[in-house]
UniProtKB/TrEMBL annotation:
Keywords of this entry: DNA-binding
Name of the featured protein: TetR/AcrR family transcriptional regulator
Coiled-coil ranges (or none): none
Organism expressing this protein natively: Cohnella faecalis
SUPFAM superfamilies referenced in this protein's UniProt entry, alphabetically: Homeodomain-like (SSF46689)
Location of the HTH tetR-type domain: 2-62
Length: 298
């Protein structure tokens, strides 16, 4: 994303947070960053388009804060979810005024594009929650995963409402531990009683499709292609300059890291693929071509 466009979006978030969407003018947003009003229209055709872009930017920021970081990789599945919930609450606290605006101006959600974005965000959230709960409790609790995710999202949502509307002083670490303990108790109770679940098992492919993410089979295929490309990169002959070997390995590592994210940076991924393709062309590494073609189509 262009730096100027990002600057406008962040200014719009501040202005919408202070006055709301309807009461904020393009002129006020332009004044916030010292830009001429007319120049704003080089980037956004209307306030509605700007608002949609703000929502997309904001939801991308939210999901990035809910991604696993390198330092989280050694944590258990349970502790990973606890840490990510803590970050989620911290993110909402830091953007409290904007969240209140979203709740208090529901009319802004009547735009069909906004509705589509909200549906996509809801599906992303469902995939995120279901995946983490499945990772914690495994196959023994598979029949209850939808009910557990629904109850967990309900509890989390109510505490967020306390934060948004009641100015509750919530300690993110304590809240995340408390919520994880509650879902433990819920799941243990369900497993103990063996009662029939209320909700059926989730259709993860349907949810991933709504979220705009690759289906499980596609993700597995992409991971397989990445593994094969890693093998080829590690086998680059010593006759190739060390700088090229290092850059190819680094590009592949960044590509793998980006695609592991909930909201990957598509431009960055495309740039890494272009760099690898350039090396393949220069050194006539024909084995790379079909793999790179497949990865670029994802």
């Amino acid at each position: 994303m262009q730096d100027k466009k990002r600057t406008i979006l962040e200014a719009a978030i501040r202005c919408f947070s202070r006055k709301g969407f309807h009461a904020t003018s393009i002129q006020e947003i332009a004044r916030e960053i010292g830009m001429a009003k007319g120049s704003m229209y080089f980037y956004f055709n209307s306030k509605d388009e700007l608002y949609l872009s703000v929502l997309e930017y904001y939801t991308d920021m939210l999901f990035r804060c809910m991604e696993e970081l390198p330092e989280d990789r050694e944590l258990s599945s349970r502790d990973k979810l606890r840490v990510l919930i803590e970050r989620q609450f911290r993110f909402f606290r830091e953007h409290l005024h904007f969240m209140r605006m979203l709740f208090l101006e529901p009319a802004t959600g009547l735009n069909p594009q906004v509705q589509n974005l909200l549906m996509r965000t809801r599906a992303r959230s469902a995939v995120w929650t279901l995946s983490h709960i499945s990772a914690i409790y495994g196959n023994r609790a598979a029949r209850y995963v939808t009910d557990a995710a629904t109850m967990f999202e309900g509890m989390t949502g109510r505490y967020l409402e306390k934060l948004f509307f009641d100015d509750a002083e919530l300690d993110e670490g304590r809240v995340s531990r408390f919520l994880i303990n509650r879902i433990d108790h819920l799941m243990k109770g369900l497993l103990l009683t063996g009662e029939e679940p209320i909700l059926p098992a989730p259709d993860m492919n349907a949810l991933r499709e709504k979220a705009g993410w690759p289906l499980e089979a596609e993700a597995q295929q992409r991971n397989g292609q990445l593994e094969e490309l890693k093998r080829l990169v590690s086998a680059i002959p010593d006759s190739v300059p060390p700088a090229v070997r290092t850059e190819a390995a680094s590009a592949l590592e960044r590509l793998e890291s980006e695609w592991a994210k909930l909201v990957p940076d598509k431009l960055l991924a495309k740039g890494m693929l272009a760099l690898l393709r350039e090396y393949a062309a220069v050194y006539s590494w024909t084995e790379w071509e079909s793999l790179l073609d497949g990865l670029e189509s994802k």
